[in-house]
Design brief:
Blueprint lengths: L3 E2 L6 H6 L14 E9 L6 E7 L13 E6 L5 E5 L10 E6 L5 H9 L5 E9 L14 E7 L3 H13 L4 E7 L8 H5 L5 E5 H4 L4 H4 L7 E7 L1 H11 L6 E6 L11 E5 L5 E4 L5 H8 L16 E6 L2 E2 L7 H5 L2 E3 L4 E2 L4 E5 L11
The chain binds FE2/S2 (inorganic) cluster.
Length: 354
């Protein structure tokens, strides 16, 4: 594989480790990160890892497996990526991004971001935390299930589980081996890791993914919706089993009703069908609109409502924020037949990072 680095070939490992000897600054104040390394991490080269550091080499805020970073791209768009490096490395954040044809964020990262460039960021935050003690305070067996680029949050979990001496296993699925990132890193875990690809093995069943669902098990899944659905069906109704998952796609809209939005006072009036979000409709007109999780928990898509009543469906805005007119347009909706007038400004600015 060809790596594209800020530092000289052969110096990468040293460069990643040497900041431990540098004076430590208080972490948490950085608003920008500098890209210090990028390299393909799948055989088909469609997945690239990006390693960031503090611009002055300072210590970064700590994180725990399952955490993600909100990254502000050069265009000002914000996107959310799981951290997949080593949580014990206080000087670097690593993400990995699959190039999605037509995907504005991934194309921009792949084609424009080069070592030495700076990006804004927010986080890390964790909506998918690994628990090694489980909800009962005991140590469950851990079953990790990853589909394709869904390996990114799972990679750190595997590392933490192994270091802790936990009883864990991973099944890693995808269309074909060339599309799967980080196979080299996972090879070191031996037969705890099963790689299964659709071209050779066919689509996995629930039994393949979770062979032994019982009350001693905690399942962590990240991957495409179809994979989550198979695992969810497999573990449903198993008393005591822990089921943790992270979705790639927005959840389906339940009990949606059509309404209209006006994107900015005097802006275009858009119809929001029952089965679509405000965000998805607005993004067709305004591709620069900011969003990240698309699931109502990161607040990246927050806008101010200028007129109309909101049906809030998020999990983060408190009563005061709702009362002052904040709305998360990836999940929350207007009332049937009503028009919501939204302030288009805040959702397009990149200066909310920090
Ligand atoms: S994009 Fe994360 S809350 Fe809307």
């Amino acid at each position: 594989m060809v790596a594209d680095k800020l530092i000289a070939p052969g110096a990468r490992i040293l460069a990643l480790l040497s900041p431990r000897g540098m004076p430590r600054e208080t972490y948490g104040h950085a608003r920008e990160l500098v890209l210090v390394d990028r390299e393909p991490v799948a055989a088909d080269a469609d997945v690239v890892s990006f390693v960031f550091a503090h611009p002055r080499g300072a210590v970064l805020r700590t994180w725990w497996p399952g955490a993600h970073l909100d990254v502000v791209l050069p265009s000002g768009r914000m996107r959310q990526y799981s951290l997949c490096g080593d949580p014990d490395d206080p000087f670097h954040y690593r993400i990995a991004v699959r190039r999605i044809p037509g995907g504005s964020g991934s194309i921009e990262l792949h084609e424009e971001l080069r070592p030495g460039m700076r990006v804004g960021f927010r986080g890390p935050r964790n909506a998918f935390p690994l628990s090694l003690t489980g909800h009962l305070g005991t140590s469950p067996r851990l079953r990790f299930v990853a589909g394709g680029i869904g390996i990114t949050p799972i990679l750190g979990m595997v590392r933490a589980a192994d270091r802790a001496g936990a009883d864990w296993s991973l099944i890693y699925t995808g269309r074909h081996r060339d599309s799967l990132p980080f196979l080299d890193e996972l090879a070191g875990y031996g037969d705890r890791v099963t790689v299964r690809t659709d071209d050779i093995d066919g689509l996995p069943t629930g039994e393949d993914l979770v062979p032994q669902p019982d009350s001693e098990l905690a399942v962590y899944v990240c991957g495409p919706p179809a994979l989550l659905d198979v695992v969810a069906a497999r573990v449903a109704h198993v008393p005591g089993l822990e089921f943790h998952h992270e979705r790639f796609a927005p959840p389906p809209i339940v009990d949606g009703q059509p309404f209209t939005v006006q994107w900015g006072g005097g802006g275009p009036v858009l119809e929001v069908p029952a089965d679509r979000s405000v965000l998805s409709v607005v993004a067709e007109t305004d591709p620069a609109v900011s969003y990240s999780c698309r699931q109502g928990f990161c607040a990246t898509c927050k806008v101010r409502v200028l007129a109309g009543t909101v049906e809030h469906r998020d999990t983060v805005l408190d009563a005061a924020q709702r009362a002052q007119g904040d709305m998360l347009i990836c999940v929350s909706r207007g009332l049937p037949g009503q028009r919501l007038v939204l302030d288009a400004g805040p959702a397009r600015r990149a200066d909310t990072v920090g």
